Amino acid sequence: MKLVSCELSKPILSDENAVTEWIIESPNIFSRYVQELVQQCEGEDGQFVLSHKDKIVDISKNMEIILNPFNVEINSKKILTKLYSELDKLAKSEEMYLETRQIIQSLIEYLLDLEQKSDYILGFEQEIDLALIFKAVGIKHEIIEENYFENLIQYIKIVSSVLGTKIMTFVNLRSYLDDVQLESLLKEANYQEVQILLIENQQRTCLKDTFCYIIDNDQCEIFD
Description:
alpha/beta
């Protein structure tokens, strides 16, 4: 995928680079670009344009931006809604259809029996919303690790498989991870076919196989 801005002379992300480290030294420019990306990831309009095979695609459906690596939520409402939708499709698939119908019929018979034993005349939907059942029993992704780094790895796996996220953007991630951890995270992202954009406010040691894009304090663009 390619991420461009009309203000910049080169793409920030491209098909040739799985990882970009975007270093923005000016605090004002840094905060402006980060804020705009956050807004576009939330569905608002902005100057950044994301494309896939020369076709413009929705940033909010393809990119996640992480401002705080300690606060990633693998069971956010957005993730669980998509998970329940996938489970609903699986339950209604040819493989699971008969078993699902038997369970729903048993549940209806149970509700009718419950009505008979109560003092009330009750009504209920014959077509049961499985997603509501999933929510009621608290289906969610199990948190495997308490370590924030391992949570980040798990988050990448989940958002790529459940949400179909193609780009993970991290802000100042190198302030939290050492180079060994970062290489491990990039390796996992590559395995999941997820592009990584690292937005940093200062230059550090160069990362292997990474496109380095610098905007210095004088707003000069430097490529490495």
